Amino acid sequence: MKKTLFVTGGAGFIGSALIRLLIKQTDYIVVNIDKLTYAGNLESLKAFSHNERYHFEQVDICDKHKLTNLFEQYKPIGVLHLAAESHVDRSIVGSEDFIQTNIIGTYTLLEVVRDYYTKLKSILDTNTLESFKFVHVSTDEVFGSLGDSGYFNEKTSYDPRSPYSASKASSDLLVKAWFHTYGLPIVITNCTNNYGPYHFPEKLIPLVINNALQLKELPVYGKGNNIRDWLYVDDHARGLLLAYELGIAGESYCIGGHNERTNLEVVNIICDILDELKPREDNKSYHELITYVKDRAGHDYRYAMDPTKIENNLGWKPQETFVTGIQKTIKWYLDNQDWVAHVQSGEYLKWVDTNYTSRILDRFI
Ligand code: NAD
Ligand code: TYD
User: Fold this and answer.
1) What CATH number should be reported for the domain holding residue 141?
2) At what angle do helices 106-123 and 163-182 cross, to 10 degrees?
């Protein structure tokens, strides 16, 4: 019998990559639970809208009643929890949605899952029960900011600094508490910055690609010397599936591919590739669009991950380096300008409350 997995936040960037992986490469039935905020885009999954193994439920993870009904209806054997507010700059402008979704939403989901898991215990045999897991998808940003040397790993203390990372750290701690106190079989993953296709163009890499193609300024915060460790989104998705299938309950796994770059390096690489793949009609270089702007408040200097544990214990290895992944990503954006145009025109929001989202979009795109 086919087993059902819940993916929360499946209409987002990483969630949609995970659902593409699950539908194409596994037998699971997948239920995508997503509120469809400004960041939720069902167009990213339109290839599966009629797939019999894919179901979409527009539900807010803060809605305990609706969540409870979904668990009763679909009886999942696992939950991969990605729903979140995810953009640091937005969290600086206003943190309320981050507290609500990332903390209260995760708490609500944990309580519903706890109740469901208690019921499962009375009806499932031990072997089947053992495959139940709650995978909480988190970030390296909970560990704070590194200097020029060193790496985050599973033993690094939490030291979040932005409203976003503080809300994610809070949710990680709740998840850990539900393991220790109630025996809920959870696994936590902490991943580095992702990039790849279907990335909402408010984050650095898609923003720079799309601004360049529209000959707009490429905003670099401060001096551009902050460092991020970049991972191609499909490599993250494979790590999440391994964490569900092989991860040990109560443990956390750090995911990253040793691809550290300064922000300025990232922007320069994108400009180099675009100069080659899509030269400007005025024969100028995209580099001329680079503009240094005011730094982000509390800007973390460096993130970098040591992924030894997930490599050794779960057999995870990234398939892309930054050099290969960024080429693929830029080609995807060049070939999928419709997807970007629909985000920018707001057409993708036809599923969402337009008053709410257009207000936010005005400010950021
Ligand atoms: P995203 O912003 O692209 O997508 C988030 C999704 O969650 C959207 O589809 C949105 O509609 C949905 N959502 C938001 N609030 C909700 C609510 N209350 N109820 C139900 N659905 C809701 O985010 P992403 O970049 O795909 O990140 C996914 C997860 O991975 C997040 O938990 C994030 O913290 C984590 N993460 C992201 C990165 C990264 O580089 N993007 C790195 C490490 C970890
Ligand atoms: P971002 O993609 O927002 O991810 P995060 O803040 O979660 O790391 O930003 C990546 C880096 O790029 C971060 O150091 C901030 C910087 N940045 C810019 O320089 N310009 C931009 O326009 C954006 C959005 C980010």
Assistant:
1) 3.40.50.720
2) 20
